[in-house]
Description:
The chain is an alpha/beta fold. The chain has 2 domains: about 1-120, Rossmann fold (3-Layer(aba) Sandwich), CATH 3.40.50; about 125-270 and about 305-320, Dihydrodipicolinate Reductase, domain 2 (2-Layer Sandwich). Helix content is about 35%, strand content about 25%. The protein has helices spanning about 10-20, 35-45, 55-60, 75-85, 100-110, 125-135, 140, 165, 170-175, 175-185, 210-215, 300-305, 305-320, 325-345, and strands spanning about 1-5, 25-30, 50, 65-70, 90, 115-120, 145-150, 190-200, 225-235, 240-245, 255-260, 265-270, 275-285, 290-295, 350. The chain has a 7-stranded mixed beta sheet. A 6-stranded parallel beta sheet has the order 3-2-1-4-5-6, with helices on both faces. Strands 13-14 form a two-stranded antiparallel sheet. Strand 5 (about 90), helix 5 and strand 6 form a beta-alpha-beta unit. The longest helix has 20 residues, at about 325-345. The chain is globular. It comes from Streptomyces kanamyceticus. InterPro entries: Gfo/Idh/MocA-like_OxRdtase_N (IPR000683), Gfo/Idh/MocA_oxidrdct_glycsds (IPR050463), GFO_IDH_MocA-like_dom (IPR055170), NAD(P)-bd_dom_sf (IPR036291).
Amino acid sequence: MRVGVVGAGFMGxxxxxxxAAHPGARLEAVHDLDPAAARDLAERxxxxxxxxxxxxxxxxxAIDLLIITTPNGLHHRQAAEALRAGKHVLVExxxxxxxxxxxxxxxxxxxxxxVLAHGSNFVHSPKFVRAxxxxxxxxxFGRPHLVRVVFRNSGPEAAWAASKDLAGGGALLDLxxxxxxxxxxxxxxxxxxxxxARLQRxxxxxxxxxxxxxxTAGTARVALEDQALLVMEFADGAVGQCDVSWVTQGGEQxxxxxxGTKGRVEVDLWTGMGLRAYSDKGYQDVWDPEQGWxxxxxxxxxxxxxxxxDGTVIEAVGQGIPLTHGPAEALASARVLATGYRSxxxxxxxxxxxxxxxxxxxxxxxxxx
Length: 369
């Protein structure tokens, strides 16, 4: 099966690496608005070519699957055009910036009988898969009543993250789509009844002096929320908390805690991997420069779930094996996030339908001050 990667940035490189390593796929083409970036990525992973034309990429009958890794605000249009052109599509998260966009893509995929998948690598990460298996043992851990997911980093470096049109939203959309989906998945797809959220903008946008003082001069400055806390109440009474941030220094944090009536399970994606290193000077790891004692990410592509995620899509396209985690989950998460944005704007807890939970309900459950 032949694959085209759309977007030659960091995530384009991640997916190109996976495709190049997978025995059931071949990297046919790389497309980017920057021809030099497309050529570099194509050469690095031995793609057949760098394709400068989006129209020619869509028209190429040799390409079965397109992996879209462009800015968030372009996902819907590009995925829709690819589906209409008869391509199977894997879209990096988020699948769309609104529930309406996601629903339209789901309908298009069904109408054209194409596989539509979305980036949700954490639910394919071996650590989180094992945690979910443990939690399912209710004899050992009891009924889960609280799930807390934390996804924090120092913020995006890509310039497009500063644009509402291209980014679609801030940290709640960009990181929250992961956190909400992981939270629901750990509870076996539990139904969400109500949502509350509190958004913050901690870092002033376009403040060069503050950038230099904090050592974040290379980080994109955004006029969007850079930190958020979202709380979901599930139909069975369980509570999910999603803590996301673009303003956390010291390396990326991806953790989950599932608390049951008889036990608990804790997951830390990037530590406890059996490898430690120390450097006075520090070195550049996958994300931020690391200094002192660190836990280098070995087998990063597999540990983070990307190899397993893309592998399920390649098998779905090539062998007809159903996706283990499909776009319906992306749609459910998009509805939660949209309700979270509205909850913050209105200052109250909202049902997933958009109706307030009660008179005078506020977002104190989401940690407002």
